[in-house]
């Protein structure tokens, strides 16, 4: 367990150093590794490899690297095989002897620490950058960052307490997730957590109990107001920094972040000075209205609302481009609600800014006239913000629960195959229970990804025992059962795989005359196909074909390989 955790952390450190082009595409990723890391050509070659060998890589001095993978496997599995070999390169593992291209049987067999490291790194790369690991990475960051809010409105104490507690619980959960998954750490995600934490703290500071306790302990009237507004400004700065990580090239983002932090420090310092030099009225629920006429507080509020409006402008400027690109419906809807939050926030912050300086400009009647607009903007911004948070959360919860459901449905099929091929399993027996329920929690996608990969690994090891006669018998049984289309194809594949598994375990010599369907082009379609096969694996067609083989006995079967160890 300690070794596995150490490997995961090492893989996370490597993933954190990568910056491949977006959107994800395997060819561009390979070109990125070739150009930026290996600094030499990388050639991809598909070959028909012997049983037990799914891929390997080797280096030819002066000519570059070659990655050879099993061309008969499905596209999703081939993607993993290529990333597995790139994982060997990134980890500094030596390549195999170039002579394996002429004789693939010289390639090393599955197993060992280096293979575990490469498997985990391949999964981490695909989970962080891949097309279906977690949706659009930028859109994912945006959707998860929507817990930000403007707490300058007077919230009821009970709502503020429970809402702040819920947000802080979300921060703790996210922090634990990042601690467990170092590869997910990024400046954008840390900024997102800071946004939520600072926003929750700002709201909590406005509750009467906390507000009064701070004023009494400090001896400074309305100090809690200054702390709450300053914390809100800091939360807005976190939003701005988060956006910077999305839209600024990595080489320039550090400098841009320092500029934002300097502006934040200047704004908070100016607010503190304006607050310190201007006595304010007691907090009675209308602090802003009671103090706007005081020149120092009007400056204070102008800085505050101006900073919030600046943040709203950046939301309006940058978020729509990602909302249009998001391919997940709940992410897209949440992003557009976040854009609506920016626009309605502009109404709220704009009227607040005008109200703050109206008395200084001689327009004393303007604040009262703008109250309906101010309250409308406030109400709409709150509703937009809540919807921008709730819709993605519900969508993500549904996606996770659906993946967990798929993972559980695949488990009997996966267990039947890997039970006879324990060398395929990445996890150790001591961690098997946690692995089996892992799809229900934070790593459900990784568990589903590993499950499908291990099923395809077993498929490749069973290929020599897949028999054309069995396939023909399965097709006849499927026709007799009235099956058609994809269900018929899944039933035939399930029967071929089940018979091959029986033949290998029973010790029959391989025939290698059968074949299976090509599978899905991507992760969702691959999972959908394997679920069909899993359902038919225990269905009547596979059962009847296997019963027929058992009734026939060994008369028309190849002679078992008595006393010999079967190839993996």
- Overall shape: it is elongated
Main sheet: strands, sense, barrel: 3 strands, mixed
Helices and strands: which structural class? mainly alpha
What share of the residues does DSSP label as strand, in percent?
under 5%
Strand tally, please? 3
- Domain count: the total is 3
The CATH topology of the largest domain is given as: Rhopdopsin 7-helix transmembrane proteins
In the predicted model, the low-confidence regions spanning at least 5 consecutive residues are 133-158, 427-442, 554-568
Instruction: Using the 3D structure, state the CATH architecture of the largest domain.
Output: Up-down Bundle
* Main β-sheet, spatial strand arrangement: 1-3-2
What would you note in describing this structure?
- By secondary structure, the protein is mostly helical.
- It folds into three domains: 2-129, Arc Repressor Mutant, subunit A (Orthogonal Bundle); 137-399, Rhopdopsin 7-helix transmembrane proteins; 405-552, no CATH class.
- 68% of the residues lie in helices and 3% in strands.
- It is built from 20 helices and three strands.
- A three-stranded mixed β-sheet has the order 1-3-2.
């Amino acid at each position: 367990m300690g070794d596995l955790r150490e490997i995961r952390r090492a893989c996370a450190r490597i993933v954190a150093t990568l910056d491949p082009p977006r959107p994800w595409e395997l060819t561009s990723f390979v070109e990125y590794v070739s150009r930026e890391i290996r600094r030499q050509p990388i050639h991809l070659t598909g070959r028909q490899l012997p049983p037990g060998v799914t891929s390997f890589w080797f280096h030819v001095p002066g000519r570059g690297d070659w990655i050879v993978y099993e061309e008969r496997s499905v596209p999703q599995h081939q993607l993993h095989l290529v990333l597995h070999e790139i994982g060997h390169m990134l980890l500094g593992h030596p390549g195999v002897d170039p002579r394996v291209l002429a004789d693939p049987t010289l390639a090393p067999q599955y197993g060992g620490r280096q293979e575990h490291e490469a498997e985990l790194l391949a999964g981490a790369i695909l989970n962080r950058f891949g097309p279906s690991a977690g949706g659009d990475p930028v859109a994912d960051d945006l959707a998860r960052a929507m817990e930000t809010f403007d707490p300058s409105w007077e919230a009821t104490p009970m709502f503020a307490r429970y809402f702040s507690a819920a947000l802080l619980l979300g921060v703790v959960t996210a922090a634990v997730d990042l601690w467990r998954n170092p590869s997910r750490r990024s400046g954008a995600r840390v900024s997102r957590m800071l946004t939520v934490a600072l926003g929750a703290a700002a709201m909590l500071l406005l509750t009467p109990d906390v507000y009064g306790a701070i004023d009494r302990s400090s001896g400074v009237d309305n100090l809690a107001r200054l702390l709450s507004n300053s914390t809100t400004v800091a939360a807005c700065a976190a939003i701005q920094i988060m956006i910077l990580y999305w839209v600024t090239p990595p080489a320039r983002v550090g400098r841009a972040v320092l500029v934002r932090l300097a502006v934040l420090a200047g704004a908070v310092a100016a607010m503190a000075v304006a607050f310190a030099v201007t006595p304010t009225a007691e907090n009675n629920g209308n602090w802003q209205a009671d103090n706007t006429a005081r020149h120092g507080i009007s400056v204070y509020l102008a800085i505050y609302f101006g900073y919030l409006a600046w943040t709203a402008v950046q939301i309006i400027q940058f978020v729509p481009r990602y909302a249009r690109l998001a391919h997940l419906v709940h992410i897209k809807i949440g992003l557009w609600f976040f854009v609506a939050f920016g626009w309605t926030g502009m109404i709220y912050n704009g009227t607040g800014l005008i109200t703050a300086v109206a008395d200084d400009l001689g327009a004393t009647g303007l604040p009262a006239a703008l109250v309906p607009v101010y309250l409308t903007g406030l109400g709409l911004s709150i509703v937009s913000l809540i919807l921008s948070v709730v819709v993605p959360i519900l969508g993500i919860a549904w996606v996770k629960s659906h993946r967990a459901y798929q993972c559980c449905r695949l488990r009997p099929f996966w267990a039947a195959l890997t039970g006879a091929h324990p060398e395929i399993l990445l996890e150790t027996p001591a961690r098997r229970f946690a692995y089996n329920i892992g799809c229900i929690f934070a790593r459900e996608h990784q568990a589903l990804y590993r499950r499908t990969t291990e099923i395809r690994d077993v498929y490749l090891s069973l290929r020599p025992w897949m028999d054309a006669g069995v396939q023909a018998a399965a097709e006849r049984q499927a026709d007799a059962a009235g099956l058609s289309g994809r269900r018929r194809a899944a039933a035939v594949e399930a029967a071929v795989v089940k018979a091959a598994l029986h033949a290998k375990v029973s010790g029959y010599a391989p025939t290698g005359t059968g074949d299976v369907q090509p599978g899905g082009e991507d992760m969702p379609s691959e999972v959908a196909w394997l679920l069909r096969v899993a359902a038919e694996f225990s269905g009547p067609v596979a059962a009847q074909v296997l019963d027929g083989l058992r009734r026939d006995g060994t008369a028309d079967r190849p002679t078992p390989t008595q006393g010999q160890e079967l190839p993996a």
